Amino acid sequence: AQSVTQLDSQVPVFEEAPVELRCNYSSSVSVYLFWYVQYPNQGLQLLLKYLSGSTLVESINGFEAEFNKSQTSFHLRKPSVHISDTAEYFCAVSGYILTGGGNKLTFGTGTQLKVEL
Amino acid sequence: DGGITQSPKYLFRKEGQNVTLSCEQNLNHDAMYWYRQDPGQGLRLIYYSQIVNDFQKGDIAEGYSVSREKKESFPLTVTSAQKNPTAFYLCASSIRDRGSDTQYFGPGTRLTVL
Questions:
Q1: Which residues of chain B have pLDDT under 50?
Q2: What secondary structure does DSSP assign to A44-110, as a single string?
C-alpha cells in the first residue's frame, strides 16, 4: 500500500518570499516521486520528479524538491515566488499494483499556493 | 503538436442519463488512465489500460465503464449507476506502465449532472 500526505491545504505567501510545500509519503516498494501543478480548470502539468540518483531535483522555473528517505518526505521549495506561481500543487508517489498489474500513481490532496502582492 | 485532448470541456447531463467522455492521445503511448477529481480529495483512479484491448479497474470503478479499441483512444462512460457523477474528469497517458514513466494529463472535462 502507498499513500501521500500533504498537510497544508492552503499556503498564502507574499510575492518574492520563499515557500515550502510539504509532502510525506509511505510506500513498501521502490519509490518514484512526482510534483504536479494545476492551474484553474486545467489538467495537471509535471513540475519535477525523483526517480533515482541525486536527491535534489529541480524544475526549469525555479522550484526544487529534495527526496529524504529517512523522513519519507519530498518537500517542494522555491526561494522567491511570483504571482504566476499561484496554483494547486499535487505530490504523487508511483508504485506497483498487486491486483491487475501495472503501476499506480497515488496523489495527495493538494496544496493551494496563493501568492499575494 | 503531440498531446492529449479531452472533449467536451464542459458537459451537462440530466440525472439517470449515461454520458461518454472522450480522450485521445497522439503521443504513441501504450498506457492510458482516467481519474476523477473532487475538491479537497486529490485525484482518484477510475480505470487504466496498459495496452489495446485490455483495461483494469482502479480504486473507484463502480458506475463507470471504458473501452480501449485503439491505441490513441480511451473513452470513459459515466453510467446512471454512478451515484455522484458531478466532478472534474482527467485523462492521462504514459509511454508504458512502469513506475518511472511520467503520466501526461489532458485538459479535463467538467461534468455536471442536473
A1: none
A2: EEEEEEE-SS-SEEE-TTS-EEEEETTTTEEEEEESS--GGG-EEEEEEEEEE-TTT-SEEEEE---
